[in-house]
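Hello,

I think I submitted the 2-acetamido-2-deoxy-beta-D-glucopyranose job twice by accident. Can you confirm which output corresponds to this input? Input:
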Amino acid sequence: MSYQQYDNTPYKESNAAYAESSTGFLPPRGPVAPQKRGLSPWIKFGVPIFIVVAVGAVVGGVLGSRKSSTSGTGNGTTAGGAAGNNGNGNGNGGRPATGTGAGSGNNLAIATATDLLAAGRFAVTTNTQYMVPVYPTSVTNSALFAAPTIAANAATWPNDPFTPANPNPLEVRPDRPRLIAPTYKWDALANLIQSDPYLQGWNETIFGNATAYRSSPMIVYNMDGESGILDNAREFKMRIKAYGYAYRVSRNTEWADRAYAEIEHVTAPGFGPDDDTKWNPGHFLDTAEYAAAFGIAYDWFHDVFTDDQKAYIRQSLVQYALGHGRDVYENGATFGWWRTGINGNWNCVCNGGLTIASLAILGEDDSGLAETLLRLTVDNAKENCARAVTEDGSWMESPNYWYFGTTGHAEMTSALLTATGSDYGMLDINPNYWRTGTFHMYVYGPTSLFDFGDHGPNKFSTTANCMFLIGDRTNHPEFILHQREQHDAAEPWSMFWYNPAATGAFWSGLALDNFFDAPAVQWASMRSSWTDPNALYVAIKAGLNQDHQTHNDLDVGDFVLDALGTRWAGELGSGNYLNSDFFLSQDQDAGRWRYYRKHTAGQNTIMINRANQNVESAPTVQHGSSGTVQGDSTDISIPSDSTAFWTTDMTSAYFEATSVRRGIRLLNARRQVLLQDEVDAQADFQWRMHTNATVTVTGTTAQLELDGETMSVSLLDAPAGAEFSVLPAERQGLEPAPNNPDQENPGVSVLAISVPAGSHTLRVLFNPQWPGMAAGDFVTPPNVPLADWGLRSHD
Ligand SMILES: *[C@@H]1O[C@H](CO)[C@@H](O)[C@H](O)[C@H]1NC(C)=O
Ligand SMILES: *[C@@H]1O[C@H](CO)[C@@H](O)[C@H](O)[C@H]1NC(C)=O
Ligand SMILES: *[C@@H]1O[C@H](CO)[C@@H](O)[C@H](O)[C@H]1NC(C)=O
Ligand SMILES: *[C@@H]1O[C@H](CO)[C@@H](O)[C@H](O)[C@H]1NC(C)=O
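Support: Only one job matched these inputs. Its output is below.
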C-alpha cells in the first residue's frame, strides 16, 4: 500500500516564465526548428538579436570571472565583454514600450534575457509551455562548451574543518548550523555568489520567494483523505528553508520571527488533532516532512531562537514525530510499513525526516529519542531507500517519483555528512546509486519527462537538486551542469550542494542515446539534440509490470514522442489516489488496473481483446545506436548514418497471443521515426497512442496538429482493412468497471488501429513536418522483420 497525495498536475508548471524564443536552424541535416505560432513580433525578431549580442557576454562573463585557461577563445573574451556591456546598456531597445517582453514573470529572478546572458548562464531563458531551458543557438566554443570537469583552480568551497577520524552518527560537529550548511559554507558563500552567475540568480530568487511567503497567509490545514496533510507539510518545509536561508544571509531577525510564527501555527490548537497525532503519523510522510522542517529550523535559527522557543521545538518534535518514529522501529507500529522492503520514496522521506530532526537536537534532547533513532534510521535507509535504484540507474517507482525519493535520500545524506562527517554508505552501499543521475538526464525529453507510471503529489520542497549532491560527491560534473540550467535549481539546498568549480557543457561528448536494460525497468532514450527544445525524442519501455511500489501502469511497449517543441504521444499521469482500491494490490484482478489511466488501454501500446496486460510480464529487449554524441556546440550536425533502434519481445505481457514484438527506430538522420509491431494474436487487438493533437484521419494516414505544428503519421503496407481511427481517451467497452469513476482526459484523443485476430505486422511512420524539409526529403523505410533489425538494416 502506498498512499500519497493525488495530484493530476505533472512536474511541469504552468506559470510562464519567458516567452519562447525561436531557436536554431540546422540545415542541411537534423531537425530544423520551427517559428512558433502566436509569438509577438518582438519575440520573433528581438530575441535572436539579443542572443547574438549576448553570447559574447556569456563567454566574457564566465571566462572572465573564472579565470580559466582560455586559449583559442580570445575573440570571445574581448568581443563578448564589449557586447555584453552593450547588451546591458540597451537591451530593452527592441522591446515595444508597452510590452512586458521576455522578462515578465520570470522564474529565474533576473529581469531580462539580456541580463541572464550577461550574467553568464548558458540557458538564456525558459520555455513558456514546458519550463525547459532554452539555449542560444549556433554557438560553438570549445573552451566554454568543453567536456564536463571539475576545474582544478576554480573558486569553490573550502574543505570542511570538521574531519572526525572515526565518524559516528551520534557524534555531531561542535558548531552550528550542523545540517546541510555549516558555518564554513555560509562564510564562503558571499564570495562564491559574486563569481558564479548561477548562485547569483538563485540567491535572488530565494530572497524573492522568501519575501513572497512572508506576505502570504499562514498555511491552511487541509486533511486530504488518505493523502493526509502532505501538501501542508511540504509547503511548510519549503517556507522554512527559504526563511532560514534569508536569515543566515541577511542576519535580519524578522525572518526568524516569521519562521517561529509559522512553527507556532502548525502546532497550535486546532491545526489538526490536539494530541500526539497532530502531524498525522498514520501517513508518515507528513510527519517526516514536518520533522525535517522543524529540524532545519531548530538548527539554522539556533543562535536567534530563545531557549524557550528551542525547548518548544524539541518538545514538538518528540511529541509529534520522534515518539512515533520509535513506535515504527521498536513497537511494530503498522504505520511503519515503509520500514521493510520498501525500495522507494517512502523509505527515503521517512528516514530522512527522522534523521534530520534527530541530528538537529542531538545533545540537547532529554528524551533520548534522537539517539535511539539515529542508531536505526541510517542502516534502514541504506538497505531500502538506497536500493531503489536499479543496476543501471532507473528509479524503481517512476520517473516522477524519482524526485521524492532522491530528495529524501539527498537531504539525509547531506545532513549526515555535515553533522557527523560521513554518509555511512548512503551513496555507495548501492554501487550504482550515482547512475540515477544519468537516468534523470535521459528520462527528460526536450519537452518533459518520459513520465510513465504515477506522477505523485505536489512537489513544493521537492526538486531535482540531488543532481548537485550526487554529481559533486561521485564526480559526475555533467549532473551538476545539467541541473544548474533547470528552473527548479533556485532553492536553498542548491546554494550548498552545487559545486561552482564544475565547468564545461553537460552535453559535450554526451551520447544522444542510452538504453537501460535492468529487467525491472527496461527502457530506451533516443534524441536528436540535447540543447534544441524542438529536437526529436523517443523513449519507450518494457520492464516488469509489478514491483514498482504500485506506481506502475500495465504499460509494456509504452512510448512518448517529442518533436517540433511539443509532445505528440504522451502520458495520462496518475489515477485518483483517493480511490480506495487504487494502491491496494497489484495482482491481475486489482482494482488499480481497471482505471483507464492504469489499464493497458490508457497506454501507448498494443491492447489485445480489450484486456489488460499480464502483470507477470518479463520482456526481453535488444537495441543499437550509432553512438552519436553532441560536441562543443549548442547545435549538432547529425551525420546521415546516425540512428538508434530498440526492440522488445513482449509476448509475456499478453494473454491470447503467440507472439507480440515491438520495435522503434530513428530514420533519416533522426528526423523520422518508425514504430513496428509484429503480433500473432488469437483475438482482435488495437494499436493505441494518446495525443493532445487534433487528429484528422484518412484511411492509412493521419494528420496531427498541435501547438501550431504538424506531424504526419502513415500506416505502411497495412494488413487488409486496417486503418487509423480516432477514439476518445476513455474506457469504452473495457471489462469490468472499477469502484470509482475514471478521471477525464480533456483534450486527449486516441489514435488507434483496430486489427483482427491473426498474424500481422503494423508499421507506423512518424514524419514531423520540420520547417524547410520538403516532401521529397522524407524516406519510406524498407520492410524489415524485427528479428533482422540492425544499425544498417534500413539504410
Ligand atoms: C573568432 O575567431 C574565429 C577563429 O579565428 C573566427 O573564425 C571568427 O570569425 C572570430 N569571430 C569574431 C567575432 O571575431
Ligand atoms: C520563486 O520565485 C520564482 C521567480 O519569481 C517564481 O517563478 C517561482 O514560482 C517561485 N517559487 C515559488 C514556490 O513560489
Ligand atoms: C543575495 O540576495 C540578497 C537579496 O537580493 C542580496 O541582498 C544579497 O546581497 C545577495 N547576496 C550576494 C552575495 O550577492
Ligand atoms: C497533454 O498535455 C498535458 C499538458 O501539457 C500533458 O500533461 C499530458 O501528458 C498531455 N497528454 C498527452 C497524451 O500527450
